[in-house]
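Async update (no meeting this week)

Hi team, since we skipped the sync, here's where things stand on the single-chain job. The sequence we agreed to prioritize is pasted below, unchanged from the tracker. I ran it this morning and attached the output directly underneath so nobody has to dig for it. Comments welcome in thread, and please keep replies under the output.
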Amino acid sequence: QVHLVESGGGSVQTGGSLRLSCVASSYPYTRYSEMYWGWFRQVPGKEREGVATIYREEGTTAYADSVKGRFTVSQDVAKNIVYLQMNNLKVEDTAMYYCAAGGWGLIVSNYEDWGQGTQVTVSS
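Output:
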């Protein structure tokens, strides 16, 4: 099992920026359906939702409509790190953010391994 550790969360005001990082202990997956990183978020009482994903082999990315143009996912393949640059943050971006590995797309159930999460709080 892959151990994932997120960092970079915090409290910012509306319009601010944060950069989340997620380090994986390894990346043992080899099948196409397992070769994506994902960033997800969850607020209490709601389901976890997909935010951004990146294909490890080619760097192809996809985003939820709610964050397009504001968030950017990137990676350092050699170091097994994935990043989420979040700009122009809004109050509705407040959530616990999780990274995931060993899956594909923006669907929670597609992923094998999860980090413990990092809290992002945006205030007006």
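Quick observations from my side:
The chain has a mean pLDDT of 95.
The radius of gyration is 13 Å.
Reply here if anything looks off.
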